[in-house]
Write a structure and sequence with these properties.
single chain; 440 residues; alpha/beta; six-stranded mixed beta sheet; two-stranded antiparallel ribbon; 63% helix; 11% strand; elongated
């Protein structure tokens, strides 16, 4: 049995965990279970006040005193309310009077501002009309003077432009001819469709060049470089030549062990496994095989001349290695090794020279191409300018009408605004000066 409802109180995280004991027949109401700790604290406070009232009203005398005190408090609160209500009504009336005065002042200020704005607008309209008329007269006079000057200069200017056009066209023809003659073998776009055989015929005197691509193990072509029989393998791939093609070519050379010289050409791309643009490889029979990557990017004439010079070396080395006298061949083995080493070094220098020449050729072609483009653009601009001048003088060019309306008063119109789109001013300048020769 519990003598008091309060059992215990434990502080926890800013709250008190309080335990009360109530009879089993009085269960806790459901709303009370769902209220928050703050709401429950308010309920406890109200309960405390209610308990005090119950204790106070249990005595009749105390109740009468409390009732009297309550009546006095109600009267006091009512009197205070009436006083505040009267004060509020007075303040409201004062605010309404102030608001009415401010409205009258605002209306008067608005009328003054509108009157000032209208005066400024009227003054601006008069000033703008006068400025427009003066500007129109000045621009019209400028047009008239410019047309008269253009009429006087037209014949001489037209003759000068035509002479300059003719001179530039002749220069372009000379440049095109020079480019076509000196760079035809280097520019890939010009020689991309040319076959290796056509280039050989154009730059060399090699003979008996025949197609052997349909014959097994015979490379692509066979012919004579001077007195040296040679096998040719020519590839025109868009990607790098795979190493299996090199292996196949060396196998063909082994099959034709009686041919001392082999040339492997890649027209546009690199050869896999070959680190330089020009490289060599010796077969087991002492055959010299030369490999050339990106053939069309080299100086074709110089490269073919180098191939021809190497054929003489290949023939001599091959002859030494196939001497019939065994004892004499033994004596030449060391010399052959030295010769092959020297040839390799020389080809490295040749490869470097070809690289430098190709770079210089490319720079020269780029410069000529840029100059050609510049000349062509200049000529086109000169043609357009001459036609515009002629059309304007002959009266065939359409001129935009100049508006003289003064209904828009957004601002003054200056001479720079009128002349900004004037074709005559653009062509002659502010004072009608002629452009210098070469100006675009």
């Amino acid at each position: 049995m519990y003598e008091k409802a309060y059992v215990s109180q434990i502080p926890s995280n800013g709250y008190n965990l309080v335990t009360f004991a109530i009879p089993f027949k009085h269960p806790i109401p459901e709303p009370l279970k769902k209220c928050t700790p703050e709401q429950f604290g308010e309920i406890v406070l109200i309960s405390h006040k209610l308990w005090n009232i119950v204790q106070t009203t249990s005595d009749t005398n105390s109740y009468s005193a409390y009732e009297k005190e309550l009546a006095e408090e109600i009267a006091r609160v009512k009197k205070d309310y009436e006083r505040r209500l009267a004060t509020t009504q007075e303040e409201r009336a004062a605010l309404e009077r102030t608001l009415a005065e401010q409205r009258e002042a605002t209306q008067l200020l608005k009328q003054n501002i509108q009157s000032s704005i209208q005066d400024c607008v009227n003054t601006s309209i008069v000033h703008t009309k006068e400025t427009h008329y003066r500007e129109i007269e000045r621009v019209q006079q400028f047009y008239k003077d410019s047309i008269e000057r253009m009429e006087r200069l037209q014949e001489g200017e037209r003759g000068r432009l035509l002479a300059q056009l003719k001179e530039t066209q002749e220069q372009l023809k000379e440049i095109q001819t020079s480019v076509k003659v000196s760079q035809a073998s280097v520019i890939k776009g010009s020689t991309g469709e040319a076959t290796f055989s056509e280039l050989v015929k154009q730059h060399t005197s090699w003979t008996n060049i025949e197609d052997t691509s349909k014959t097994a193990q015979s490379a692509d072509m066979r012919g004579m470089i001077g007195k040296v029989e040679t096998l040719f393998e020519v590839k025109n791939y868009s990607n790098d030549i795979p190493s299996k093609e090199v292996v196949k070519f060396m196998r063909d050379m082994e099959v034709h062990s009686n041919i001392p010289y082999g040339v492997f050409i890649s027209m546009n791309t690199d050869i896999t496994g070959k680190k330089t643009q020009v490289s060599i490889q010796w077969s087991s029979h002492g055959q010299l095989c030369i490999f050339i990557s990106k053939f069309l990017e080299t100086d074709v004439s110089y490269t073919l001349e180098m191939v021809e010079q190497c054929s003489v070396i290949a023939s001599r080395v091959y002859s030494l290695q196939h001497r019939s006298d065994v004892e004499e061949l033994e004596n030449y083995k060391e010399k052959l090794m030295q010769v092959k080493l020297i040839i390799t070094r020389q080809l490295i220098e040749i490869n470097e020279m070809i690289t430098v020449m190709g770079h210089d050729k490319k720079l020269l072609i780029d410069n000529i191409t840029k100059q050609h483009t510049m000349y062509k653009t200049t000529l086109e601009k000169m043609k357009v300018g001459c036609n515009q001048i002629i059309e304007l003088i002959l009266g065939t060019a359409e001129e935009e009408p100049m508006s003289t309306s003064t209904s828009d008063v957004g601002g003054d119109v200056g001479l720079s605004d009128v002349l900004e789109t004037n074709p005559i001013v653009e062509a002659t300048g502010k004072k009608g000066k002629r452009k210098k020769k070469g100006d675009v």
